[in-house]
Design a protein that fits this description.
This protein has 340 residues and is of the alpha/beta class. Helices cover 35% and strands 23% of the residues. Helix 3 packs across helix 11. Bound molecules: adenosine-5'-diphosphate.
Length: 340
């Protein structure tokens, strides 16, 4: 798998070292009592009443880093041998697996699928962030049912939480419609703020791209090197032709295509139960075969999916048939990505 997830969330715990032979027992005793410090103290020494600590803060959010330091200062304030506490924090950069979710054109359900995929991946045990980079119509706060404004910590935006997933959206940063006129550099800088947000120990970012093949796609590919792309299409020919263009872009730029998802396939009438195919059915699976890319699965057109999305309750978070569909698709995606 392309570069992602190698050291995500993992850290080495090093033993305390005490280069000066002043008795560090009171120090280590106090640190042992701080639960959050377990495995985080890279070194601790006590000299002339000054406790000097180096903490390994890898994969902690800014909030968690602050809380860890406060807990330790609290504990050490009660140690009579300690008159001053000096703390330095180091962190290894967390490599995250970026999965881009794209489509050839708008309205095919790309955002709906991205949200449900993120929720299904989280339910399967992955630590997932969802990045709504669709400058033309950021809809994830609505689909995920959390319209809170994110806070800032250490110049990073802190994602909000929804259905077991962390979420950042362009829609949380600007008023509706404000991003429409953005050209390359502005769009790229907004994308940067989202991707470089305070994702803590998230090991995977699902990025909901704008439809088509524009500036956001190019900056994501060039600067953040996604592990792969998932393409969403409806089954009809026209949508598939557009989808093929999106696939071409990723292929040309050496981003592996993780697979194609067919959305809005087959409509079961809520009254008589008869299944009809407003957009045809099976077109995407056939196209995937022709294009030699994996087919990840098919999502029907249902009232339940539309209503749940509007209500901020992604079906993947529930227990219905749709949840099972998204679980299976997430499973196939994880197989393609390899172990975390
Ligand atoms: P895109 O991101 O491709 O523009 P959206 O995810 O915003 O598309 O979906 C467009 C509309 O279609 C939304 O109202 C959404 O609720 C609805 N929708 C998406 N997928 C389905 C589906 N499988 N069944 C019913 N409605 C759907």
């Amino acid at each position: 798998m392309g570069g992602g997830g190698k050291n995500s969330g993992k850290r080495r715990s090093r033993p305390y070292v005490a280069p000066m032979s002043e008795d560090t027992a009171p120090l280590t005793r106090a640190l042992d009592a701080v639960a959050a410090a377990a495995g985080r103290v890279a070194s601790a020494r006590l000299a002339g009443g000054i406790a000097s600590l180096v903490l390994d803060a890898t994969a902690l959010s800014a909030h968690e880093r602050g809380a860890l330091e406060a807990d330790i200062r609290d504990a050490l304030a009660r140690v009579p041998e300690v008159t001053e506490v000096r703390i330095a924090q180091t962190a290894e950069k967390v490599e995250r697996t970026i999965v881009a979710v794209g489509s050839g054109k708008g309205g095919v359900g790309k955002s709906t699928v991205a949200a449900n995929l993120a929720v299904a991946l989280a339910r399967a045990g992955r630590k997932v962030g969802l990045v709504d980079a669709d400058i033309y119509g950021p809809s994830q706060p609505r689909i995920m049912g959390n319209a809170d404004r994110p806070e800032m910590a250490d110049k990073q935006i802190v994602p909000v939480a929804a259905h077991g997933v962390r979420l950042l959206s362009i829609g949380q940063l600007v008023e509706p419609g404000a991003a429409l006129a953005w050209r390359g550099p502005m769009a790229a800088s907004a994308l940067g703020q989202l991707i470089e947000g305070d994702w803590g120990d998230a090991e995977m970012l699902v990025v909901d791209l704008p439809p088509g093949t524009g500036d956001i796609q190019l900056s994501l590919i060039q600067k953040w090197k996604p592990a792969g792309a998932v393409i969403v299409s409806t089954p009809q020919d026209l949508a598939l032709i557009d989808a093929t263009r999106a696939i071409d872009l990723f292929r040309k730029m050496n981003v592996p295509i993780l697979g194609l998802i067919e959305n809005m396939a087959g409509y079961a009438c809520p009254h008589c139960g008869e299944v009809s195919d407003p957009f045809g059915s099976g077109g995407a699976e056939a196209a995937a075969k022709v294009l030699s890319i994996p087919f990840l699965g098919r999502i029907p057109l249902t009232m339940a999916i539309r209503a749940a999305s509007d209500a901020g309750e992604p079906p993947a978070a529930g227990e219905g048939e749709e949840a099972a569909l998204f679980r299976d698709i997430a499973g196939r995606l994880m197989e393609r990505l390899g172990p975390s």
